[in-house]
Amino acid sequence: MDIVSSNFKSFDGKRIGVLKGTNSEFILEIVHLIEAQMHISIDKNSFNYSRFASHMQYLFRRKSEYTEISSTNKKLFELLKNEYPMT
Predict the structure, then answer these.
(1) Which of 37, 31, 35 is nearest to 14 (CA)?
(2) CA 47, CA 43: separation in Å to the nearest integer?
(3) CA separation, residue 85 to residues 1, 14, 29 (Å)
(4) d(Cα 14, Cα 48) in Å, to the nearest integer?
(5) Where are the beta strands (DSSP E) in 1-87?
(6) What digits encode the pLDDT tens for the residues 17-69?
């Protein structure tokens, strides 16, 4: 999945489609792709979904403004990245 250009690819690398519309529509389409690929159902009324949607909104805002997250947690991030490389 390539968020920047809004091109989505399945786990086997095939292009699925291009997303269009509002961020809310974009998030719903992402959720539908996750549900289809992972064979799960996501409760869109749950706290976890709200949290996911909020994170996606901030991601879209950062991408549209061409900004990145600046954090003082770089050391912790690097430690976790090295400790858990498969996640």
Answers:
(1) 37
(2) 9
(3) 19, 25, 28
(4) 28
(5) 7-9, 15-18
(6) 454 568 888 899 999 999 999 999 999 999 999 999 999 998 888 888 888 77
